[in-house]
């Protein structure tokens, strides 16, 4: 029996990679210093797994920004707009330009699109494909990392995004071809990579093919068989692991087990029921990797249950054909539970139920020992401690609240209905709000400067008292309100300077949540989030945002939006309890947010935004499971939003998602205004709303806040023209793609001034055209 890890967190135990990247981007360190940080993190990760006793340790799972972008650079799929940078700059600078855009030295180049990695909160950079595109080996990162691992004495297993998954993750940038048609063009580059790895002594290669657990058409299935058949012909002696995760194989089982590979990895956390069918189908030539430790959550593994799966597999196919692994890459797990030392933040009782990436590595090793014929005393003690922790969590009084459960039980369909349909509400809202054509707003947050973060840190440490902290935040809030008034934004926001993270902030004020000091996970690039932990029944003990919303509204005659995070997003961006259905937990959160919405309205806040950027992300990977999820997810949003009067305008925000296939469900959410990310796709995402004839108001983002480049007024005007071509002007709002928390003030000010000017120009042009028609 062997153990392996599919991938390991790459941000470092103290987010060293985040800090180094941001220092490099700002010119505070040079390239060699950045590369040294990456090298240290990588070698530390290898050593940790080696010391734990993992048999096959992944390499090429490290990335300075994103693994899909790494593969794009590796195979030379570099969009034409970056060619000038490719000639002038280092490979690393080209790489970051593709991720973040480039705006200096007389060049102004947009970033590549970014979207969610399946149903996670990790974002990847979307490959761009052209008809008859050619590929070539451009970057040697995969080979170099394997050589480094080998030199460090590591039993390394290169991890490569499978050819089919790489193509399916990408986007055709012109019409008239299918990206799968590029498989034969791309195959020689994969063969060249494998040849290099074989020459340097690689034994096992892991291909990540999560699309094997998704719905596939016949062409994709045939291409899978062709590609792996060709790879096997060229490499009869290499051992190939194909890793599937996030779902069960289901109707792709016969395809997966017929591929000429050596090890098939399946996710038994997401789909434990598939084990029996896989064991009954698997040929004698194929070994099976059991993904039994949850790579996406923080709960301690139930050894008893996992040993049941291992025993079943060993009895059927023999221990020599069984591998033990996490369900997926540990990229989605925090680094090390041992760093959680403050019992005031994370109580010992809850902490004993948890395992981070480092602990999950040891869980894998202990399961191998426990599955052996004669586990030693220390290993048996580990089993006893595991049983004790699992039982403690089941019986803990911290988890259950009967009042919350009863409130969920008595919730009715009427609780998810506004008083009047949208067309009636719109007239009422316009009379009250009196907003202009093309109203401007932002998504919520403004830049959190070093000073703001320092104030929060000092307040937490007791170096500032509550009154001092409050005064500083009020000064920053007033400055932001005044500046928005000055440049002419129509609907203001208070800036959210009191908030750490859009989910963590609310979790800190809701019962049933726990928190960590260092439970960081990568969201995209250098952006890390620290998800709260939902361990028990959720309710709202006290108002959460009313104080700051009331204060901001008192400063201005303009409307100030109340800013909330929606129930589905709070669920998706937390580590969620696994002892009850997610739908039940989501409804508990929805009722808590409903209470907050109602209190904001009572306080005079007439525009309330309930952000749901994760609603598409939560969509099950198999279409047959969509409707059940969408039913409870849409209902949860409506429960949170439907307790208000017609005159109160409800906004929602979504970003980095494709909407075509769930547009009806988005309409069913019945938000008065939806704001969406649109600039990276040049308004392509609006087509879904146009084709559907989306009835409510919509704010397509006119500039990309995930890039440091500042778009011109003219660029935004062009985007608004594209928007007006498909959406009636009376329905359009003007706003950035997303919140501005991670940006700097100088670029934010320039961009928002240009945005307001673009809105005015679009409005004047529309009025002029309307007058001419009349």
From TrEMBL:
Cofactor: Zn(2+)
Binding site for L-methionine: 443-445, 496, 611
Catalytic activity: 5-methyltetrahydropteroyltri-L-glutamate + L-homocysteine = tetrahydropteroyltri-L-glutamate + L-methionine
Start and end residues of each Cobalamin-independent methionine synthase MetE N-terminal domain: 3-315
Residues at which 5-methyltetrahydropteroyltri-L-glutamate binds: 15-18, 116, 527-528, 573, 617
Residue positions of the active site: 706
GO biological processes: methylation
Binding site for Zn(2+): 653, 655, 677, 738
Pathway: Amino-acid biosynthesis; L-methionine biosynthesis via de novo pathway; L-methionine from L-homocysteine (MetE route): step 1/1
Keyword Methyltransferase annotated: yes
Domain Cobalamin-independent methionine synthase MetE C-terminal/archaeal: 438-760
PANTHER family recorded: 5-METHYLTETRAHYDROPTEROYLTRIGLUTAMATE--HOMOCYSTEINE METHYLTRANSFERASE
NCBIfam families, sorted: met_syn_B12ind, PRK05222.1
Cited function: Catalyzes the transfer of a methyl group from 5-methyltetrahydrofolate to homocysteine resulting in methionine formation.
Family: Belongs to the vitamin-B12 independent methionine synthase family.
Protein name: 5-methyltetrahydropteroyltriglutamate--homocysteine methyltransferase
Originating organism: Chryseobacterium kimseyorum
């Amino acid at each position: 029996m062997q153990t392996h890890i599919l991938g390991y967190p790459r941000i470092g135990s103290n987010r060293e990679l985040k800090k180094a990247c941001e220092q490099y981007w700002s010119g505070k360190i040079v390239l060699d210093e950045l590369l040294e940080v990456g090298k240290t993190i990588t070698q530390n990760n290898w050593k940790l797994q080696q010391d734990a006793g993992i048999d096959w340790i992944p390499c090429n799972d490290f990335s300075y920004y994103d693994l899909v972008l790494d593969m794009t650079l590796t195979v030379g799929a570099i969009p034409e707009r970056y060619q000038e940078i490719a000639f002038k700059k280092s490979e690393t600078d080209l790489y970051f330009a593709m991720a973040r855009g480039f705006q200096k030295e007389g060049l102004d180049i947009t970033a590549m699109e970014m979207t969610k990695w399946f149903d996670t909160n990790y974002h990847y950079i979307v490959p761009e494909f052209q008809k008859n595109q050619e590929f070539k080996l451009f970057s040697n990162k995969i080979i170099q990392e394997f050589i480094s691992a080998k030199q460090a004495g590591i039993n390394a297993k290169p991890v490569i995004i499978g050819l089919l998954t790489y193509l399916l993750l990408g986007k055709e940038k012109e019409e008239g071809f299918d990206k799968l048609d590029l498989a034969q063009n791309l195959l020689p580059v994969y063969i060249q990579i494998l040849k290099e790895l074989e020459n340097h002594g690689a034994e096992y290669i892991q291909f990540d093919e999560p699309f094997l657990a998704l719905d596939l058409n016949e062409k994709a299935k045939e291409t899978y068989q062709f590609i792996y058949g060709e790879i096997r012909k060229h490499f009869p002696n290499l051992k190939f692991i194909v890793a599937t995760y996030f779902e069960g194989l289901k109707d792709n089982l016969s395809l997966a087990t017929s591929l000429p590979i050596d090890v098939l990895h399946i996710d038994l956390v997401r789909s434990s029921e598939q084990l029996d069918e896989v064991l009954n189908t698997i040929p004698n030539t194929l070994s099976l990797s059991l993904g039994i430790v949850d790579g996406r959550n923080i709960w301690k593994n139930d050894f008893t249950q996992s040993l049941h799966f291992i025993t079943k597999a060993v009895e059927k196919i023999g221990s020599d054909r069984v591998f033990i692994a996490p369900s997926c890459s540990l990229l989605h797990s925090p680094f090390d539970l041992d760093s959680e030392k403050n019992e005031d933040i994370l109580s010992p009782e809850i902490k004993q139920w948890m395992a981070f990436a480092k602990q999950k590595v040891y869980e894998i090793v202990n399961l191998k020992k426990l599955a052996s014929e004669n586990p030693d005393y220390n290993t048996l003690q580990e089993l006893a401690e595991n049983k004790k922790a699992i039982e403690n969590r089941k019986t803990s009084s911290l988890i259950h609240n009967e009042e919350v459960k009863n409130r969920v039980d008595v919730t009715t369909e009427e609780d998810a209905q506004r008083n009047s349909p949208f067309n009636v509400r719109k007239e009422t809202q316009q009379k009250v709000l009196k907003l202009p054509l093309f109203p401007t707003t932002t998504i919520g947050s403004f830049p959190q400067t070093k000073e703001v973060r320092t104030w929060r840190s000092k307040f937490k440490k007791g170096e500032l008292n509550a009154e001092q902290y409050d005064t500083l935040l009020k000064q920053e809030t007033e400055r932001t309100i005044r500046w928005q008034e000055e440049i002419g934004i129509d609907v203001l926001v208070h800036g959210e300077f009191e908030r750490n993270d859009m989910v963590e902030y609310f979790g800190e004020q809701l019962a049933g949540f726990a928190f960590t000091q260092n439970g960081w996970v990568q969201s995209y690039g250098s952006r890390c989030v620290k998800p709260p932990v939902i361990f028990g029944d959720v309710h709202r003990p006290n108002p959460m945002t009313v104080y700051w919303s009331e204060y901001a509204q008192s400063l201005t005659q303009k409307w100030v939006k109340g800013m909330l995070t929606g129930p589905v997003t709070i669920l998706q961006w937390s580590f969620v309890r696994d002892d009850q259905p997610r739908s039940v937990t989501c409804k508990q959160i929805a009722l808590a947010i409903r209470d907050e919405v109602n209190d904001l309205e009572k306080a005079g806040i007439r525009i309330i935004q309930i952000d749901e950027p994760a609603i598409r992300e939560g969509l099950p990977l198999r279409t047959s499971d969509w409707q059940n999820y969408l039913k409870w997810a849409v209902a949860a949003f409506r429960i949170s939003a439907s307790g208000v009067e017609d005159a109160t305008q409800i906004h929602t925000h979504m970003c980095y998602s494709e909407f075509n296939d769930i547009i009806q469900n988005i309409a069913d959410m019945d938000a008065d205004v939806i704001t969406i990310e649109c600039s990276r796709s040049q308004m392509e995402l609006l087509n879904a709303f146009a084709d559907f004839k989306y009835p409510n108001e919509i704010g397509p983002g006119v500039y990309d806040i995930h890039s440091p480049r500042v778009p011109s007024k003219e660029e935004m005007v062009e985007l608004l023209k594209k928007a007006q071509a498909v959406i009636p002007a009376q329905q359009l709002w003007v706003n950035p793609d997303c919140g501005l928390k991670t940006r700097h003030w100088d670029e934010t000010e320039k961009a928002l001034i240009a945005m307001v000017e673009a809105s005015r120009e679009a409005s004047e042009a529309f009025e002029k055209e309307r007058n001419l028609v009349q």
